[in-house]
């Protein structure tokens, strides 16, 4: 069982290539994500799925797009929270909550609490998340304690989660872009050329096969 992370890049470019406003790409991405979630949950290969929905740098985008994306995320959670309970999905949020819209923040907190006893599959939504920001927040929590590998690891957003094994990034971008600087340090990366709205179950299966064919050395 692995901890899989997905960086769903290219949603805006997918929409613009079709003459659509940027948020239409995010709407399509939400639909596609649901397909990936179902596949991952039933595959028997994935114990945790981390999905980077919005970075700390994404606040620099046009306010209209940001607002639409927040609405899409809120709508998705409202529609799926009961399904999470039915299907044994534990929902977690990584990142900051203080800058999110109040209704979305409450929804995140309530869904985390409601699904806290579901351990069959974990969905970790990275929202207003950045790797540097996570480390800064972790170090501030130490409050004068010794700064060690173990103490920082104990104060990342969800220290109970295993480190990330595989990261998939779509849209042909070959960058880590401030993602999971601590917990993905030994992760394998697979880069997919097409945009996330076009990312398929076959792509996901291919990425897992690629991961299986690699030999992980962990610095040894």
UniProtKB/TrEMBL annotation:
Residues involved in substrate binding: 10-14, 26, 59, 61, 169, 175-177
Record key words, sorted: Magnesium, Metal-binding, Transferase
Binding site for Mg(2+): 9, 188
InterPro entries: UPP_synth-like (IPR001441), UPP_synth-like_sf (IPR036424)
Cofactor(s) needed by this chain: Mg(2+)
Protein's GO biological process: polyprenol biosynthetic process
SUPFAM superfamilies attached to this UniProt entry: Undecaprenyl diphosphate synthase (SSF64005)
Enzyme Commission number(s) of this protein: 2.5.1.-
Entry-linked Pfam families: Prenyltransf (PF01255)
Active site: 9, 58 (proton acceptor)
Binding note for cofactor: Binds 2 magnesium ions per subunit.
GO molecular function: ditrans,polycis-polyprenyl diphosphate synthase [(2E,6E)-farnesyl diphosphate specific] activity; magnesium ion binding
Domain of life (superkingdom): Bacteria
Protein family (similarity comment): Belongs to the UPP synthase family.
Subunit and interaction comment: Homodimer.
Cited function: Catalyzes the condensation of isopentenyl diphosphate (IPP) with allylic pyrophosphates generating different type of terpenoids.
Protein's UniProt name: Isoprenyl transferase
């Amino acid at each position: 069982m692995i901890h899989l992370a997905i960086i769903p890049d290219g949603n805006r470019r997918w929409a613009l290539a079709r003459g659509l406003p940027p948020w239409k790409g995010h709407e399509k991405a939400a639909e596609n994500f649901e397909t990936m979630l179902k596949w991952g949950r039933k595959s028997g290969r994935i114990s945790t799925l981390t999905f980077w929905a919005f970075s700390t740098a994404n606040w620099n985008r046009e306010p209209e797009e940001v607002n639409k994306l927040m609405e899409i995320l809120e709508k998705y959670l409202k529609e799926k929270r009961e399904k999470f309970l039915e299907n044994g999905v534990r929902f977690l949020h990584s990142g900051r909550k203080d800058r999110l819209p109040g209704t979305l923040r409450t929804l995140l907190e309530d869904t985390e609490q409601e699904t806290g006893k579901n351990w069959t599959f974990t969905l970790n939504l990275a929202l207003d998340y950045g790797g540097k920001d996570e480390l800064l927040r972790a170090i501030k929590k130490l409050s004068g304690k010794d700064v060690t590998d173990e103490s920082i690891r104990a104060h990342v957003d969800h220290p109970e989660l295993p480190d990330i094994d595989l990261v998939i990034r779509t849209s042909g971008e070959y960058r880590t872009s401030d993602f999971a600087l601590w917990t993905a340090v030994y992760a394998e990366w697979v880069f997919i050329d097409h945009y996330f709205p076009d990312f398929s179950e076959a792509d996901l299966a291919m990425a897992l096969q690629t991961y299986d064919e690699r030999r992980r050395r962990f610095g040894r």
